[in-house]
Amino acid sequence: MTAIAVVVGLLILVNIVLHRTPEAAYVPLSILAALVFLGIGRLVNLSWAELGLGAGTLIAGALWGALLVLVVAVVYLIGASIPSTRKWFGDRRAIETHGGHIARRALIDVPFGTVLLEETAFRSVLYALIVRRENTVAAIIGTSVLFGLWHILPALPMHDSHDAIRETVGTGRRARIITVTLTVIGTGLGGVVFALLRWWTDSLLPPVGLHWALNGLGLAFAWTIGRWIAKTEGLFERHDDADDPPVT
After folding, report:
1. Structural domain contains residue 239
2. Ramachandran region of residue 49, left (φ > 0), alpha (ψ -120 to 50) or beta?
3. Are 37 and 204 in contact (CB under 8 A)?
4. H/E/C letters for each residue in 225-243?
5. Residue 198 falls inside a structural domain
6. pLDDT tens, residue by residue, 46-104
7. Residue 128 lies in a domain
8. Which of 126, 134, 139 has the alpha carbon at shortest distance from 199?
9. Full-model pTM
10. How many structural domains comprise the chain?
């Protein structure tokens, strides 16, 4: 069995386990899985440079990552200032919880759970394995398709927690299928952007920065802007003890 098949099979297993495990175990299991993926890469003699972690690209990669965080913050601020786009920040999973929980998710769960695992698996190890076996184009396409499919399970609760999505696609089984399909397509396209950054910079850090910004800052904006909308327009009830699922 090739290393690519092993990584893909392990991704399927990890995806299922993470969505059936208590929230408290999400970060430890994600870190463990990331280390296993990285270990597989090193076991088949992928170099640190092939994995996007070469010493020569770390500084430049970190700078690009920081710049991308700033760009996303500006885009979110613009989106929050426009009434027609502001409603998309209204995710009940963020709104119906307390600030400490949001801070923990944005600063711990997202970077050390979601981002670490997904970037290590998709843009580091799997990307490098496909490049070695095929070519860069195949790596970009392959990792992006799998990245989109990876988000099927996280997309299921999104339809129920996001009023703007329900208003757009409706309710019921057909609407849920549409939500999942659009999520897979959207995250797959996002995977293309992450993979292109990985290719262009020869570093894993730019996609890491962009990924955290989209998810971590997204949570912060969903909480702050969503609650402002809830308070001014009475769209949501507050439930500070809500138990939120892991962010993926």
Report:
1. no
2. alpha
3. no
4. HHHHHHHHHCCCCCCCECC
5. yes
6. 999 999 999 999 999 999 999 999 999 999 988 878 877 766 666 666 566 777 888 89
7. yes
8. 139
9. 0.83
10. 1
Domain that holds residue 197: 3-233
Residue 13: inside a domain = yes
Q: Is 232 exposed, middle or buried (CB count within 10 Å of its CB: 0-12, 13-18, 19+)?
A: exposed
Give me the amino acid identity at 110.
Answer: V
Q: DSSP states of the chain as a string?
A: --HHHHHHHHHHHHHHHHTSS-GGGHHHHHHHHHHHHHHHHHHTT--TTTTT--GGGHHHHHHHHHHHHHHHHHHHHHHHHSHHHHGGG-BHHHHTB-HHHHHHIIIIIIIIIIIHHHIIIIIIIIHHHHHHHS-HHHHHHHHHHHHHHHTHHHHHHHHHHBHHHHHHH-SSHHHHHHHHHHHHHHHHHHHHHHHHHHHHHS-SHHHHHHHHIIIIIHHHHHHHHHHHHHHHH------TB--PPPP-
